[in-house]
Design goal:
- This is Triosephosphate isomerase.
- It holds the Pfam family TIM.
- Its EC number is 5.3.1.1.
- It catalyses: D-glyceraldehyde 3-phosphate = dihydroxyacetone phosphate.
- By secondary structure, this protein is α/β, with parallel strands linked by helices.
- The chain has one domain: Alpha-Beta Barrel (TIM Barrel).
- The chain is built from 10 helices and 8 strands.
- An 8-stranded parallel β-barrel has the order 1-2-3-4-5-6-7-8, surrounded by 6 helices.
- Strand 6, helix 8 and strand 7 form a beta-alpha-beta unit.
- Helix 1 packs parallel to helix 2 and helix 1 packs parallel to helix 10.
- The longest helix has 17 residues.
Length: 250
């Protein structure tokens, strides 16, 4: 069975106080065997989140280098992320693609490093608003999936999660309809199958202004296995409500 996942991407938000209050509030209320709750804090707080959660949540890093080691000041390697207890890494988030000029080829190299280090790569894909309006959304997402996962070994598909985040819905308050989200998730699963992946075993998440009041409808799609949550993951009750929406349908 595909895993149900709710992941919180804190982006560049955080403090020891936030970790203490937020993780402390959620750690006693998550940990169901049917749901993986993953937190992606800024890198300096990974170990503190681990300490505060007591193993109730799984840990992820928001980005890694395509290099293993060396003179790359400011970079963090996949092996380092694994060494401090991370199980997941976000790769190819739209903010990395747009602000840091990450290409599909670079994303593929990072996916390879994450998987080789024994972690799960969460490949982020999604179209901008102009691409959706021009009817190119599915083609854009298909290209990102095919190129981003081109080098996944045939026996390592279990180390892949795909997160569909329409760029126009990230941090804007706009959200894809449940029907649109399901349609794109089904298209992603079709592409995975064409690539030779066990598509029905790979979790595909929705991201883009996921909130407690729309999560249940979004998660109702048969190909939607959970959510990659941004701003709402910084509010304990809101995040827990989103988790409950997925647990109820699991």
């Amino acid at each position: 069975m595909r895993r149900k996942i709710v992941a919180g991407n804190w982006k560049m938000h955080g403090s020891k106080g936030l970790v203490r209050d937020l993780v402390g509030a959620i750690s006693g209320q998550v940990g169901s065997g049917s749901l993986d709750v993953v937190i992606f804090p800024p890198a300096p707080y990974v170990s503190y989140v681990a300490k505060m959660s007591g193993g109730a949540v799984r840990l992820g890093l928001q980005n890694v280098s395509e290099h293993d080691a060396g003179a790359y000041t400011g970079e963090v390697s996949a092996s380092m992320a694994r060494d401090v207890g991370c199980d997941f890494v976000l790769v190819g988030h739209s903010e990395r693609r747009q602000m840091f000029a990450e290409t599909d080829d670079l994303v593929a190299r990072k996916v390879e490093k994450v998987i080789a280090s024994g972690m799960t790569a969460v490949l982020c894909v999604g179209e901008v608003e102009s691409e959706r309006e021009s009817g190119e959304a599915e083609a854009v997402v298909e290209r990102q999936v095919r190129q981003g996962l081109a080098d996944v070994p045939t026996d390592r598909w279990g180390s892949v999660v795909v997160a569909y985040e329409p760029v126009w819905a990230i941090g804007t308050g706009k959200t894809a309809t449940a029907e649109d989200a399901q349609a794109m998730h089904a298209a992603i699963r079709r592409v995975l199958s064409e690539m030779g992946a066990p598509a029905n075993s790979i979790s595909v998440l929705y991201g883009g202004s996921v909130k407690a009041d729309n999560a249940a409808a979004l998660f109702a799609g048969p190909d939607v296995d959970g959510g990659l949550v941004g701003g709402a993951s910084l509010n304990a009750e809101e995040f827990l409500s989103i988790c409950r929406c997925l647990s109820a349908g699991a």
